[in-house]
Design brief:
3-stranded mixed sheet, about 25% helix
Length: about 120
């Protein structure tokens, strides 16, 4: 093996190992559910989205979403090939505190979920 080939051998080895891993990752992505979360109001809200397809449920999004903005999510499907989620939302403005929540079940790929905070918040 000449000096140039010996120098590049580790890079080729890495490429040969990485290629099958990339194919596995690509096939896993193809089996998921793409969901778009949309703030359907003018006020900025803090939104938490839970994946209820899995047990125990897990947080898959927790962030501020500006008015009329969207956030894409990727979810794992259930046995029927659908996704299930629940969400909670609270307005960012502490002087006009409003809340919202809902469950969404049986979401297909490319589903759009509107979130909003337009109800009185429960007292604690």
């Amino acid at each position: 093996m000449d000096r140039l080939s010996a120098h590049h051998a580790p890079r080729w080895s890495l490429a040969l190992v990485a290629a099958p891993l990339a194919l596995v990752a690509a096939s896993a992505v193809a089996d998921g559910i793409n969901v778009t979360i949309s703030n359907d109001g003018t006020q900025d809200i803090n939104v938490t989205v839970y994946d209820t397809t899995v047990r125990p449920r897990r947080v898959i999004l927790s962030q501020r979403i500006n008015g009329f903005s969207t956030v894409p999510l990727y979810m794992s499907p259930d046995a029927s090939g659908r996704a299930n989620l629940s969400w909670t939302a609270v307005t960012v403005d502490p002087h006009n505190r409003r809340c919202g929540h809902a469950d969404q079940v049986g979401l297909a790929d490319s589903a759009q979920v509107s979130v909003h905070a337009d109800s009185d918040c429960a007292s604690t």
